[in-house]
Write a structure and sequence with these properties.
Helix content is 36%, strand content 21%. By secondary structure, the chain is of the alpha+beta class. The chain is globular, with a radius of gyration of 30 Å. The chain binds 2-(butylsulfanyl)adenosine.
């Protein structure tokens, strides 16, 4: 880029960043996702690094935010509240480490690691241990006096506790809103027909910057401290972590994820670990922060324009992005459920490119007022299906004529042409075609062969589609008459795979009654219900012939499931398939559950067990009358932990629940 071009581009970027800053900091109403903002800022930083002569004093890179709202009393920070430099990949982290090493002329730096909370920064001043004033960061130099609101946050002490209370202490930290409180707040907003908050950070900001503290008091805000500013006291701090520990002793909350890192590899492990646990944390984080732990070393390094040289925020890939809805189509699931799916202009979110997002059902589309042609926020958290968060309604005015169009639920199934209906009280529309509908049939076969059902390895969706399209398999029983010669002819099926598949089909013939029931894919009959049915009736025929009254005698079967089971066995088509299947399939005699030594006990398994898979461990516990749950609560009896246990282990410790090593667990089930 030549200087002239760079200068023009820098001007455009500054205008645009200033505009977004105003929206974000002053109006609490961001008009672009963080990722987009970061990109603009980064582009500007890059230009200014390449052409330092273009830096102007009021460039957004030279300050932290926009000017504060005028209604609040202004507070000048004695020490400016600066920002953090970002890293987005391992190379940028290595470059950070190198900068630190070079400056300090040493090779072995200890870092502190913390989560990067996604809320808003505040400074809270205690005089003689008493909370005096609190201010937002504002533009980094002048913030807004929010003492009245900060006092409503119950986790922030009004008086410090413990020994050696300093004469003056300025605590800096993040005010944020936990996911649960955010959802509850938005539910309330919805009920009152008021504007929804886009994310927990805006909810926190909107709640803290209220002129009326009564409103703030009703919003569940949280706080973690991450550093100190001004300080006059007797305790001498040598490291950052010591400082945080002391704050904790004085009654100030700090993040439980704060740790000491002995080198960069440990930092990478921390980043990975937190990244994996991110979607399970109670609050939103957008990365992790590493700081040089030794305070003398921090001082020696100093600051560069807007951020300290001794700290870095290692950001996670964004989970929210904006994109355009190209179309809304429907998908037909195994139970005939018709799910509207948004086809999107491809967009990179949370580390992968997304082209589809679920819209759940028609009610959801109406509630969010999503239309074809709309620009929307897309969110992807952990492994969950990406979803449309909200529409950017303001963008509709820029659309071409007829580009924006409302979605209409089709009146016939797009796959088989059967009718579509909605049962009373249900949000979903369903195709009434049953397994005569190809889409439902394919899904029924996929379910039938799945691991927890008949466990036929090597029969993925693509092969199932080929088998049905070539007419080789019209219903699940026909899987058992497939031959090697027929399979080897299929696309992408080699000699070895065909042989393996034939063998897997053969092996699946010997199964258990509960697997067989589950494999049938009766609506709302999952593994647990299939197991209860098998345990209760011991044989297949009594289940087939059971009345709804008889079915309802089983503890976890209510009227709806009983109805589903009963009507499944009333369908002639289903009975024909079952008769055909019974020619091939055998199951072991159902052992009764007499040995219910673990009756009434609930187990949670976390981490990797070395001697068996989690499913196997689960089966064993159930066979002994125990229950297995996915989350730890006060009702949990034991948490079994293997290698690299997750947060469930910590939760168990917090709640004082008994934890078992793998050895202890094996001893227990012996
Ligand atoms: S340290 C001079 N630690 O990120 C550095 N900041 O981009 C002061 N933040 O304004 C910040 N979690 O609002 C620090 N553990 C953490 C943080 C954190 C979130 C926010 C804070 C700050 C911004 C910097």
């Amino acid at each position: 880029m030549i200087l002239q071009q760079a200068s023009k581009r820098a001007d455009i970027l500054r205008d645009s960043i200033n505009q977004h800053n105003y929206q974000y900091y002053v109006l609490d109403d961001p008009d672009i996702p963080d990722a987009e903002y970061d990109r603009l800022l980064r582009e500007l930083i890059d230009i200014e690094t390449e052409f330092p002569e273009l830096i102007i004093p009021n460039s957004p890179t030279q300050r932290v935010g926009a000017s504060p709202l005028s209604e609040f009393e202004q507070v000048k920070h004695i020490m400016p509240m600066l920002s953090l430099a970002n890293a987005f990949n391992e190379d940028e982290m290595k470059a950070f480490e190198k900068r630190v090493n070079d400056r300090l002329e040493t090779e072995s730096i200890i870092f502190s690691a913390e989560t990067k909370l996604d809320g808003l920064a505040v400074s809270i001043i205690y005089e003689q241990g008493v909370l005096r004033t609190a201010a937002t960061r504002g533009d980094g130099y002048t913030g807004e006096n929010v003492t009245h609101n900060i006092r409503t946050i119950s986790s922030i002490p009004l008086n410090l506790i413990g020994d050696d209370i300093p004469d003056l202490l300025e605590i800096r930290g993040e005010v944020f809103m936990a996911h649960k409180s955010f959802e509850e707040l938005n539910d309330k907003q919805r009920q009152k027909n008021e504007k929804l908050f886009a994310n927990p950070r805006n909810a926190a900001a909107g709640s803290l910057r209220q002129l009326d503290p009564k409103i703030t008091a009703q919003r569940a805000l949280s706080f973690y401290a991450y550093s100190i500013g001004e300080y006059k006291g007797d305790v001498v701090f040598k490291t950052h972590i010591e400082t945080l520990d002391q704050l904790k002793d004085w009654g100030v909350p700090i993040s439980p994820e704060t740790k000491k890192m002995k080198n960069l590899d440990a930092c990478f492990d921390y980043y990975k670990d937190i990244g994996e646990r991110r979607s399970g944390l109670a609050y939103e984080i957008d990365g992790v922060v590493f700081k040089v732990n030794d305070l003398m070393q921090q001082q020696a390094m100093g600051f560069v324009s807007r951020s300290p040289r001794w700290a870095i925020a290692y950001k996670f890939p964004p989970v929210e992005e904006i994109t355009k809805i190209l179309d809304i189509e429907v998908q037909v699931g195994r139970t005939g459920a018709i799910t509207p799916v948004a086809r999107l202009e491809p967009v990179f979110v949370g580390g992968v490119t997304i082209t589809n997002a679920t819209l759940h059902n028609l009610d959801e589309i109406k509630r969010k007022d999503v239309r074809v042609g709309d620009w929307v926020y897309i969110r992807r958290a952990g492994d969950v299906i990406p979803e449309v968060v909200r529409v950017i309604v303001e963008k509709r005015k820029d659309a071409r004529r007829n580009e924006i169009r409302e979605f209409v639920m089709p009146s016939v199934c797009p796959v088989c042409g059967s009718g579509v209906e909605r049962q009373e009280g249900e949000a979903v529309y369903r195709c009434v075609g049953g397994i005569s509908c190809a889409a439902q049939n394919i899904q029924a076969i996929i379910h039938f062969v799945s691991r927890k059902a008949m466990n036929i390895d090597g029969l993925g969706e693509k092969i199932v589609v080929q088998l049905t399209e070539t007419g080789l398999v019209n219903s699940v029983d026909e899987l058992y008459s497939l031959s090697y010669e027929q399979l080897v002819e299929l696309e992408r099926m080699g000699d070895k795979s065909a042989k393996n598949l034939i063998e897997a089909i053969e092996t699946s013939k010997q199964t258990t009654l509960e697997r067989f029931i589950y494999a049938l894919g009766i609506r709302e009959v999952g593994e647990a219900t299939a197991r209860s049915l098998a345990q209760h009736f011991k044989e297949f025929e009594p289940i087939e012939n059971a009345t709804t009254e008889k079915l309802e005698l089983i503890s976890d079967i209510g009227p709806i499931v009983a109805h589903n089971i009963h009507s499944f066995f009333q369908q002639k088509h289903n009975i024909e398939i079952i008769v055909a299947l019974k020619k091939y399939i055998h199951w072991d005699k159902v052992e009764s559950n007499e040995s219910s030594t673990l009756e009434g006990q609930t187990f949670v398994i976390t981490g990797t067990l070395s001697s068996m898979g989690r499913d196997e461990a689960k089966q064993k516990l159930i066979a002994l009358g125990g229950k297995v749950s996915g989350s730890v609560s006060k009702k949990t009896s034991y948490v079994v932990y293997g290698d690299s246990p997750g947060s469930k282990y910590e939760k168990a410790m917090q709640l004082g629940i008994k934890v078992l090593t793998e050895e202890e667990f094996i001893e227990l089930i012996k």
